[in-house]
C-alpha cells in the first residue's frame, strides 16, 4: 500500500524554501519552459494552418528537427558531464533562445513558404540548439544541481510546468491575434533566463549553526572511455529500445498529430486555437502538481514500475483519442498527459541514476532518453504523416497505440529492477 509521510514532506519543503540553489533552479525552469511554450505549444498548428504544410511536410519538419536535436544532445550531454555544474553550455543555449523571435519571423517563416527544404535545413539546428535539445539540457543540469545541493528535482521541475502552463494560456490568446507576438515574447522571456544564468553561482547551504545541511562531495569527472562504455552495455540498449518504442510514438501523436486533431472539432479555427490554449494551460497546471507528487510514488514503487505505468497512460490516451468523437471527452483525455509526463520524466532520471554511473547522468538522459526518442521520431514522423494522409486520425491512432502496447509487454521482462531506485 502506498503511504506518504507528511512530516517528512514538511521537512523537505522547509529545507527547500531555505535553499537558494532550489530557487535559482526553479527560476531557470520557469523561464525556459515559459519561453518554449510561447511558440512551441502552437508550433504544429502554426505550420499547418498559417504556413499551409501538408501532413507529409509536417512529418519532414519534425524529422529534421529531431535529427538536428540528436547532434546537440550528444554535444550537450558529453560536454555537460565534463563541466558537471559549469554553465558554458547553458550560456550558449540561452543566447540562441534570445534570437528565437527574429529568427522565426524574418528567416524561418519566409523560407518555409518560398523554399521549404532550405527552411527545414536552416531551422532545425536553431530550434534544436535553443529549445528542442535545450529542454533536456536544462532538465539534466537542474537534476544534477538537485542531487548535489540537497533538494528533490520534482518540486523544482514543478516550476517548469507552471511556467509552460501560464505561457500557454497567454499564447492561445495571442496566437489568434498574431503568432509573431508569441515569437517576440519568447525572446523577451529568454532574456530573463539569460540573466538568471549570469547571476547564479551554486553554493553549499549552511544551517544556523554553520553546519552543512548535506555532505556534498565533488564528483570525479568521467573519462571519455567511461562515457563510451555505456554503448557496450546490454541494459543501456534495452532502455533505449523501450524509449524509442514508447516515447517516440507518443511524441509524434502528441506534438505532430493531436493539436490539429483537436482544433478540427471547431467550426472556427480561431475558437479552436483559443480553447486548445486554455486546455493545454490547465493540463500543464495539473502536470505541475503531479511533478510534486510523482517523486513519492516513484520512490515507493520503483523506477521500472513507474515507467510501465506511464506507458500504460500513453496507450490509454492514444487509443481513446481514436475511439471518442466528443470534444469534451477528448479534452478530458488530453489531461492524461498531466499524469504521464511527470511519471515518465522523473522515473527516467531515477532509472538512470539507479542502474548506471550517476556521473554520466547528462549523457544518459540526453543520449539514452532524448536521442533515443528523436531517433524514433526521425524514422517514424514521415511514415506516420503518410499514414495519416492516407487513412486519417482514427486508424493512425490505433496503430500507434498497438505498437506502444507491444513494446510495453516486452519491457516488463527487459527493463532492470534496481533497488537503488527505491528509497525507504
UniProtKB/TrEMBL annotation:
Its main location: membrane. It comes from the Bacteria. It is a multi-pass membrane protein. One of its GO terms (molecular function) is lactose:proton symporter activity. InterPro entries: LacY/RafB_perm_fam, MFS_dom, MFS_trans_sf. Keywords: Cell inner membrane, Cell membrane, Membrane, Transmembrane, Transmembrane helix, Transport. PROSITE patterns: MFS. The chain crosses the membrane at residues 21-46, 58-78, 85-105, 117-138, 158-177, 183-200, 236-253, 273-294, 306-324, 330-352, 364-384, 396-415. It is found in: Cell inner membrane. Signal peptide: none annotated. One of its GO terms (cellular component) is plasma membrane. Residues 240-424 form the Major facilitator superfamily (MFS) profile domain. This is MFS transporter.
